[in-house]
Amino acid sequence: MNFFRIFSQEIPSDVTVLAGGVSFSLHKFPLVSKCGYIRKMVSESNDADLSEIQTPDIPGGAEAFELAAKFCYGINFEISIENIALLRCVAEYLEMTEDYAVGNLVARTEAYLSEMALKSLAGAVSVLHLSENLLPLAEKIKLVSRCIDAIAFMACRESQFSMTGRSDTGNEGILSSTMSQPKPIVDWWAEELTILRIDIFQRVLVAMMARGFKQYALGPILMLYAQKSLRGLEIFGKGRKKIELQQEHEKRVVLETIVSLLPRERNVLSVSFLSMLLRAAIYLETTVACRLDLEKRMALQLGQAALDDLLIPSYSFTGDTLFDVDTIQRIMMNYLEYTVEGNRLGYQADGEYVSPPPSDTERVGKLMENYLAEIASDRNLTVSRFIGLAELIPEQSRITEDGMYRAIDIFLKAHPALSDMERKKVCSLMDCQKLSREACAHAAQNDRLPVQTVVQVLYYEQQRLRDVMNGNPMGGDSPALPSKVNLYSTDIHAVSDEISKLKRENEDLKIELVKMKMRLKEIEKSGGRSATGSPMSNTSPSADKPPLPRRSFINSVSKKLGRLYPFVRSEGNSIAKTRARPSKNRRHSIS
């Protein structure tokens, strides 16, 4: 191709240059006068009439060589942010230095970089981004390192200026809270860095920290970069991967690098963001170290998590559970380990370790109970995994056992084929003494619970009522009693009728319990006679397995227990109606 017709019309071209797959018909004299590379090719050639010159691996290809040729011919063109990296690299490749001509292309491009391109943060980022396609030559001439250093310097300056401005406008209360728990604001230039390749982006952040940029302030920048670079991953549903292997590898490298750069300070990143990274890490099958790091970070802030943050889909396709239970179990174990051994585990700004605050315990307990209730309906969830996860919930975090009872009830309904022994093991997870009055009334009539558990519920409820009527504050101070009713008021006459009625009901309940004990003893005796060979009818229980009490009797006891709630009935609503509906469409009850 002939791009310089004005010269070729007067003087025929005497050399053809091949650059980037394109042929340029040019003249030796203007090229040799400014290009050391072409001068050497002509002088060292054995052919006196060299007519073809090849430029293998020329940076920027045909576009870059065309600009360099125009410069040799004296054709004006504009040097800009968009082409400065291209020009600087091709000038280096063609050896267009001051040794061959004054004011050559290398000097011109260096002057533009120093005076224009690297004077603004946006310009430096743009030049650095364009240099990514010009490696390794851009690295050799230190164009990449100069851009990184300029970006780091200006980013630190902008960050300090913005922090100073925010401090001047804030009051002392805001400043004190910021000092104790820094929450950096995303600066305007953070979006600029998201166009960089991950390895160059990492080098920029490292250079910024070397200049004094606070590590906790990297959080928002990393969040922006992750959201942009990991966009398109289907990590919120269970399905086969719809991603090419090369793209999967690139995103895996991006994710592992981002995790390695995460700030070590607590509460800088939200739990939702950490959960998103963990989902992506499982989906992309990153290194085990990467996933374990994210699990530990989530454990440190587990008290701030929402239920949706823990509902991580299981990306295995072997008929496993719907949600990744093993990951949540490890997170909970890390949380407990931080709580017990806080000085040895947990991140802090100086690299030391610290346990989560005690106020998180109750929130974590409630969160894990809700998680248990959510996964309990999964038919693939085994008894051992359900019990293993439930046993990790600290007892001191459970003020009442209503949440645990709800999860157990859902699990028993979703797994009707459980043996009696398995149902007993599951029900042993809850403390019947800590059930509320509403939960006791529900459990007393729950056919899915073992008889022993129902009897235990009835016994503790009767004991609780006896303590209340005897005026024992310790016995009556229980989550089973509504806070809105004051049983210890000095105005005894106002509730004397209700107390008398409770006493009569309590006596009836005692009689029913005595009858139940007598019937159980008779059944045991008859079972013993059967074991020694005594004749028994066809309806008698077997020797190795005592029969359950008659269902009608349990129902009668449960109905009498239901009449022992005058304070709830006085509001005009039944126990079932007083249950608060969940805010989301969760499985809060399966009755």
Automatic annotation (TrEMBL):
NPH3 domain ranges (all copies): 187-464
Record keyword Iron-sulfur present: no
Keyword annotations of the record: Ubl conjugation pathway
InterPro entries assigned: BTB/POZ_dom (IPR000210), NPH3/RPT2-like (IPR043454), NPH3_dom (IPR027356), SKP1/BTB/POZ_sf (IPR011333)
Annotated PROSITE patterns: BTB, NPH3
All residue ranges annotated as the BTB domain in the record: 13-81
Pathway connected to this protein: Protein modification; protein ubiquitination
Nucleotidyltransferase in keyword set: no
One Pfam family named in its UniProt record: BTB
Composition bias, Polar residues: 529-542
Region: Disordered, residue numbers: 524-555, 571-591
Family: Belongs to the NPH3 family.
UniProt-recorded name of the protein: NPH3 domain-containing protein
Originating species: Hevea brasiliensis (Para rubber tree)
